[in-house]
Amino acid sequence: MSHKISFGTDGWRGIIAQDFTFDNVRLVARAVAAYIKDRGSARQGLVVGRDNRFLAEEFAQAVAEEFVQQGIPVYLCCGATPTPVTAYAIKIYGAAGAVMLTASHNPPPYNGLKFIPEYAGPALPHITRQIEENIAKLLAAEPCDAYRSVPPRGRYGNLTDDVPTPAVGCSLQQPFQAYVEHVASLVDLPAIGRAGLRVVIDPMYGAGIGYLEHILGEAGVQVEVFNNYRDPLFGGTLPEPTGQSLGKLQSRVQAGGAQLGLALDGDADRFGIIDANGAYITPNQFLPLLYYHLLTVKGWRGPVARTVATTHLLDRMAARYGQAVYESPVGFKYIGQNLLEKGCILGGEESGGLSVKGHIPEKDGILAGLLAAEMVACHGRSLSELLQQVYEEFGRLYSERLDIHTTPAQKEAVLQRLQEFSPAELAGRPVQQKITIDGTKLVLADGAWVLIRPSGTEPLFRLYVEANSLGQKVQLQQQVQQLLQLS
Q: Please, one GO biological process term (predicted)?
């Protein structure tokens, strides 16, 4: 049969052919269909999108077929489609939600399935719990039939690579142009065009191929693109745009005299940014830059949403402009909720996801890249120069995350110690606040903070530190590890 199917921070993921099988995908699709039918919104239909991973077309077809068999119309996206575009398609077609087949930035052997409800953002826990309960009900009611062996359709069946034959009740859709027109309304493309920028783009072989280069090219930007073809092995690496994976982008930016390098992860919902000098701009640096830009250039006013693991430089800016900060557990679904309900003009997380007012409450790497180009164009300065200006105005913070592996026994011992972990001071500074909405976070009187979060699936702890100096950062890392015997 299968391993337990459960929805984590951003959907259900598994190894292809081991956990992520056609039988399991069809089972989850029927559980999603049951959720939609229970809500009475089946007639609105569901969007189905997929990325560039192995067997992506066939998995998408399997999901579409299950929905059609349940009497739900399907809007099947043609070709690889980014997660934010699939989510936006819900708004285009007035659908009841969407299913996106993607494992995002995970290694090539993985694929995944995420359900996106009608509000076009990540499903909240109470929704995914209902889907998991539906899976259990299906297995209990029809243990033999729950896994229906249906031959996969696709290039190994009666379909071609590029033009699938949809099931009856399933219409092929291409939301590309409608999405492009929407993001163009959020970004100052004329200003970008006037700036005469040169931008290098790395879509990392993923679903975002064709988006940034089209939008920026149409605006008049000189664009260079590489890794812009399908490779389910992602060039032998992870489709994750971090400082460790963007060496080639850094080299091309510097060699070509470009003002920006923009990268997308496998499903284009996360961003990676290289500045003109080859520096990697971390999300914890870019988010304050963007909030500053929204406040000072665009003239927007409103609160900001961030996860418990994301920089407090956003808090300093919000305080200066009299705005609130909404802190949430890790996971963009909580950021999206604050964007929807609290009027936030920006929501973001340190792992590279963001969205803004007027957009869908789903993280969008394409929009992030376009806003980076707008910032360089409007300020007439590199991101590093603009960052220095922000530091001079609001003070500099030094952020880092350490992933610390343990044995299962060590993990259990550390978890026990964490329950009582309330030191009066750290690094010679009083502990002012303890926050436990996601892990254990201690905020010091001088604004520095530490966060310890255990992995939910493996013997691993993530230690986040943000400090006022490099020395304080190292001191906090060492002291917390020593106190918790975490090594």
A: carbohydrate metabolic process
pLDDT tens column, 211-245: 999 999 999 999 999 999 999 999 999 999 999 99
Quote the CA–CA distance of 109 and 280 in Å, as a whole number.
Answer: 27
Domains and CATH numbers, the chain: 12-175 (3.40.120.10), 186-394 (3.40.120.10), 398-483 (3.30.310.50)
Interatomic CA distance for residues 114 and 107, integer angstroms: 17
Question: How far is Cα 34 from Cα 11, in angstroms, rounded to an integer?
Answer: 17
Cβ atoms of residues 472 and 450 within 8 Å: no
Q: Token pair for residue 339?
A: 């964007």
The Cα 446–Cα 448 span in angstroms is 6
Q: Please, what's the largest Cα pairwise distance for the chain?
A: 68
Residues 308-345 as b/e (b if ≥16 CB within 10 A, e otherwise) read: bbbbbbbbbbbeeeebebbbbbbbbbbbbbbbeeeebb
- The SS3 of residue 460 is strand
Query: 460 phi and psi, to 5 degrees?
Result: -150, 140
| Cα separation, 328 vs 435, whole angstroms | 11
Asked if residue 117 lies in contact with residue 123, where contact means CB atoms within 8 angstroms, the answer is yes
Residues 6+ apart with CB under 8 A from 248: 202, 226
Quote the CA–CA distance of 285 and 383 in Å, as a whole number. 9
| Residues 221, 198 contacting (CB under 8 angstroms) | yes
270, 84 contact by CB (below 8 A): no
DSSP at 122: P
Q: Which tokens in the block code for residue 18?
A: 């081991």
pLDDT recorded at residue 83: 98
Give the pLDDT of residue 147. Answer: 53
86 token code pair: 């699939």
The helix/strand/coil state of 143 is coil
* pLDDT one-digit tens code per residue, 5-46: 888 777 899 999 999 999 999 999 999 999 999 999 999 999
